[in-house]
Design goal:
This protein is an alpha/beta fold and 286 residues long. It has 2 domains: 2-162, 3-Layer(aba) Sandwich (Rossmann fold); 168-283, N-(1-d-carboxylethyl)-l-norvaline Dehydrogenase, domain 2 (Orthogonal Bundle). The chain is built from 13 helices and 9 strands. It has helices at 12-21, 37-41, 50-54, 67-75, 98-109, 123-129, 140-150, 165-193, 198-206, 213-224, 233-248, 255-272, 280-283; strands at residues 2-6, 25-29, 45-46, 59-62, 89-92, 114-117, 120-121, 132-137, 154-161. A 6-stranded parallel sheet has the order 3-2-1-4-5-6, with helices on both faces. Helix 8 crosses helix 11 (233-248) and helix 11 (233-248) packs antiparallel against helix 12 (255-272).
């Protein structure tokens, strides 16, 4: 397939390279030129702008930071919409507002262009390995059309229903992730305060009922003082704001999510925003 990909961050760059490895023709774009280079070196073409990217293939992938960024890339001045054609597909792999997703899909449909919301889970490691979980909303026939390309980037690819449902499932994912990170942070901090060998405590509880992906993958980073991001605190804070908005629209806030949203927001405000989500433990007094 001939594909375009906008957004060469810590997720989008390796995702685009996995599309290349799978044999697809890929053209990439990023607002800052240096971030385009790893994909160029892997064999991608580089578009000078978004309209040129829109002309490069049948499916356009996006992986950017937030709802306004997606709107700007698609509909902004010199955005994709200037050169999108009927029959093309826009696949948004960012994590954004479900309500905005529905609006964007309607605007694209009026142009004869289909859209899928296809946010991902698995962090930078999953993006590099091509093992992401991908949750998709939109028309099922469009999902089936695009699925061969998604299979180059993920291993658990699930159709979740109409437009916006991929983002809603991602919000569920982020709520569970954030509460789990808080649990890991407090548990390991508790072990440290009791004077335990934290590594030993981690080894034991990881193999029991407390075991989880977050404990196994982020726990060792907390213990080692490794704050490099697989996923940034500021993005987790953003995702929780999206989840809170969806909760308010469907029955009210849930206490645990409200708490973790406050803590991640405070961590970002205190200068930890570009560090990995494991750095939440620093806010708690590590």
């Amino acid at each position: 397939m001939k594909l375009g990909f906008a957004g060469m961050g810590i997720m989008g760059s390796p995702m685009s390279q996995n599309l290349l490895k799978a044999g697809h023709e890929v053209t990439v774009w990023n607002r800052t030129a240096p971030k385009r280079e790893p994909s160029r070196a892997a064999g991608a073409q580089v578009a000078a702008g978004l309209p040129e990217l829109a002309r490069s293939g049948e499916v356009m992938f996006l992986c950017v930071s937030d709802t306004p960024d997606v709107e700007r890339v698609i509909f902004g001045e010199s955005g994709l919409a200037e050169d999108l054609r009927p029959g093309q597909v826009v696949v948004d792999m960012s994590t954004i507002s479900p309500q905005a997703t529905e609006e964007f899909a309607a605007r694209l449909e009026a142009m004869g262009v289909d859209m899928l919301d296809a946010p991902v889970s698995g962090g930078q490691a999953g993006a590099i390995a091509g093992t992401l979980a991908i949750m998709c909303g939109g028309k099922e026939e469009v999902f089936e059309r695009v699925k061969p390309a998604l299979e180059a980037m993920g291993k658990n690819i699930v159709y979740c229903g109409p437009h916006g449902n991929g983002q809603r499932v991602k919000a569920v994912n982020q709520v569970i992730c954030a509460l789990n990170i808080l649990a890991v942070s407090e548990g390991l901090l508790f072990a440290k305060r009791m004077g335990l060998d934290v590594g030993t405590a981690h080894q034991v509880v990881s193999s029991g009922a407390a075991g989880s992906w977050m404990l196994s993958n982020l726990g060792p980073k907390m213990i080692a003082g490794d704050w490099a991001p697989g996923f940034m605190i500021r993005l987790q804070a953003k995702d929780l704001r999206i989840a809170l908005g969806a909760m308010e629209a469907t029955g009210g806030l849930l206490d645990g999510t409200a708490l973790t949203a406050r803590l991640f927001g405070e961590a970002a405000e205190r200068g930890l925003g570009d560090e990995g989500t494991q750095a939440l433990v620093k806010l708690l007094g590590w």
